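Re: weekly structure request thread

Next one in the queue (112 aa):
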Amino acid sequence: MAQHQAHSHDSHDEHESHGSLKEYIVGFVLSLILTAIPLIFVLNDIVEGTAANVVLLVTAVLQFVVQLFFFMHLKEEKKPRWNFMALILGIAVVIIIVLGSIWIMGNNEVVK
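Done, posted below.
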């Protein structure tokens, strides 16, 4: 029983390396900015067409990077295999969301 408690305590120490409040606030503020940029650009007709798509794509990729480093703690993981698996999962989710959004936008017909 004492060995089990010591083992669970050791494994708990490995997981204590989470982000600080400052890192979470920085990540949150960056996320807000990266959300506001395309919203402001598109709603105020600052960019249209291909330029709007480029702004959306660039800010989406930057948003993905912010999420990985500030909230998923990708840089702090001690086991590289888990880093790689988290990255693959994140990329798969982004690809599904982006392709699904493009498909929806391309097939969005106004019903009269």
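The helical segments are 2-14, 21-43, 49-71, 80-106. The first helix runs from residue 2 to 14.
Next request, please.
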